[in-house]
Amino acid sequence: MPDFRLVPVDMLVIVASVAAIIGIALWVGRKQEGTESYFLAGRTMVWPVVGFSLFATQFAGTQYLGLAGAGFETGISVWNFEWIATVVLLVFALLILPFYLQSKITTVPEFLERRYDRRARYAFSGFTVITAMLLDSAGAMFAGSLVLSLLFPEVPIGVHIAIIALLGGGYVLVGGLKSVMITDTIQGVILFAAGAALFILVFAEFDFDWSALPALAPEDGFTVTPPADDGFFPWPGIFTGAIWLSFYVWVTNHIVVQRILAAKNIDHGRWGALFAGSLQLPLLLFLIFPGILARDIYDPDQVTDSDVVWVALVFDYVPVGIRGLIVAALIFALMSTLDSVLNGASSLVVNDFIKTREREFTERQLLTISRVLVGVFMLVAALWAPVLTTFSGIVAYFQSFLGYVTMPLVVVLLGGIFWRRASVQAGVGTLAVVPFGLLAFFLGEVFGLFDLQFLYATGIMLLLSLVVFVTISLVTEAPAAEKVEAITWSPQTWKQETRELASTPWYGNYRVLAMVLGLVTIVAVVPFIG
Question: In the beta sheet, which residues pair with residue 263?
Fold first, then answer.
């Protein structure tokens, strides 16, 4: 392993880059006239920004390092989460996204109120805010501080958390979602280019010999379909868990969907979603493959933390100066989840709880409340982040936690869009399954009373939620047709869009673009099956 010490030139580049990005964020977000501007960037975002921001929001710096680390430890099966995200974003763009944008909602829970009632909105929104604060934002601060501790080991971890909180929360406080999306795009471009360049530099050491990759991969590590008893990613988990977790992340989670709601129009929203999906596929090349190649560069028996492998490659192969630029982008990637969560959680509280009260507020008052909430959430997350160190493995359990508790949310949302018979009582009643999932998570993952791979546990919770949802719907009154007609999918919806697309050029037709991306995904995945 190299010495993770930054030379003065790198430090200068980091300081200049951070200052420049913060300056850009404050400049683009300097004029905030109301909550729509603050939370949805005035609904003016074009598709490249929407796509890169979607990618960066869900793909924080810790995950950037984690993919290379997983490649080093287990091989390419971790890529399943990425190409499945591409498939889910295709479905989102084709079938679901129009209902969000045409209804002009400000939050995903607001859509649930229109489909069911206000109880569903409050329950869904409250759950998202709590998990956003105690897991998403605090976890991002804590994990980010660990990465910074690698680069600056002499600085206490509390100081790292404070720096991340101030840098990530400061420009969100002032500039809102527009600042977040622009900075996400900048750091996304830099890190994407860095990943591509690093792969080429490292692969050159092996004379670009593709046979080196399967030879260096761990046992059963060069396939996306590991055995059914694999502890990390059993192949049936693709269908029982990974797909549905991806639906939660990309379709149900307001923190992510907020970027789509900020799109200029439906076309830019769809193109942005498809663009974000296309960015998932090259991660096999840019991150996972370097992790596998690193097994020949660093002794696997001597590497105590595989998540540092990608940083080690940067320090070993990237020239001074460029290295500083990559580290600066990585620091901002570490904050991308934080800034998104702070703005998204504030949006939920303002739009789902404050605006729905009988008392009316002016836009200026709401904007002030929004900024106060961002500040409060930033402080809460910063204070909670060090506490995570006392909960052994809670950050590692995060994905497992989502598998246990989010399936009722996925069923309620997808069921409400694709099944007109779904009743109001079914929507509210199914959300009551969430506490049972939480109990199962603690019994199995925390206290170890049973041993079940979390992707299989996700499938069980999905099945339970479906049974509750369908049963309650069938024994209660169906919703009025006029209530659900405009917000549920039907074959007539597809036929109407077909007529509207008849005169659209192929390069602007989202269905053609989706088909191309789908074919590319199949071609990319099939060689690694078996």
Answer: 45
